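Dear H.,

Thanks for agreeing to be a second pair of eyes. The structure we're designing against is below in token form, covering all 267 positions.
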């Protein structure tokens, strides 16, 4: 499968280039960076710590999408929406791992999904998606008298909070309770906040060091506490999952999918 990696010069982009090169079912077709990047023209394999692959970094996404079959996209919301429009025109598989997406961005992706297979997730690891399924079941079983708090920590360079994974877990908790996360979420607390509002789902974002990703979902009841946790030790696991998602979507009809579809996880 001929794949394009966007944001190829970033940490995640380089991990994606490595993951594509390591999978015998995929081939790096093009590597994209923004026009002002100093990496334009450099060999994407060497940038990723591999032998030269003959695929230079380019800013011409339109030309890069020609004859490609899929796009692996972990960039920024505005760039992702632009790439989704191109992917829809070219009928490509579009794997979206970009975080910080707003409601308008999701609506734009769903419009593009009328013409392309789009797989979007806040996290592409098997463990996190299994965790989300467990969180949903626990939230449904324990009921609203158990307080839910989601604590996440990432490296100091991460620019959005809460993380996409934390929001994915929050959506799972809200779905288990049959409520909308937008109505239940409490993003931060500061000052004299008063008592905790029953039924809310709290988020805390920690930033520091080189942490790849720690997520802890806490269910706090009367006299007892349940904690469900995932620790990411290698950024490559997200890249491997993204490649797996692209291969799963190859040949499928247009639509909007998540990693739950890819992995066949119910609930």
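And this is the sequence the design step returned. I haven't edited it by hand at all.
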């Amino acid at each position: 499968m001929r794949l394009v990696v966007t944001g190829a010069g970033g940490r995640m982009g380089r991990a994606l280039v490595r993951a594509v090169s390591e999978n015998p079912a995929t081939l790096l077709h093009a590597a994209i960076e923004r026009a002002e990047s100093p990496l334009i023209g450099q060999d994407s394999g060497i940038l990723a710590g591999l032998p030269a692959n003959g695929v230079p970094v380019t800013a011409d996404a339109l030309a890069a999408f020609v004859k490609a079959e899929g796009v692996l996209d972990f960039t920024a919301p505005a760039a992702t929406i632009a790439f989704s429009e191109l992917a829809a025109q070219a009928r490509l598989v579009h794997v979206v791992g970009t975080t910080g997406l707003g409601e308008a961005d999701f609506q734009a992706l769903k419009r593009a999904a009328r013409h392309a297979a789009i797989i979007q997730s806040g996290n592409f690891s098997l463990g996190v998606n299994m965790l989300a399924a467990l969180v949903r079941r626990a939230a449904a079983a324990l009921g609203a008298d158990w307080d839910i708090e989601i604590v996440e920590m990432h490296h100091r360079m991460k620019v959005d909070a809460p993380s996409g994974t934390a929001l994915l877990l929050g959506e799972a908790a809200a779905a288990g309770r049959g409520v909308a996360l937008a109505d239940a979420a409490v993003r931060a607390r500061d000052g004299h906040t008063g008592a905790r509002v029953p039924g809310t789902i709290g988020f805390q974002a920690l930033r520091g060091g080189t942490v790849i990703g720690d997520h802890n979902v806490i269910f706090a009841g009367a006299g007892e506490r349940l904690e469900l946790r995932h620790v990411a030790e290698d950024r490559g696991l997200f890249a491997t999952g993204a490649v797996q998602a692209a291969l799963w979507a190859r040949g499928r009809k247009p639509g909007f999918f998540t990693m739950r579809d890819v992995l066949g996880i119910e609930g």
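Two observations from my side: The two ends are 30 Å apart (CA to CA). The CA atoms of residues 56 and 74 lie 19 Å apart.

Warmly,
E.
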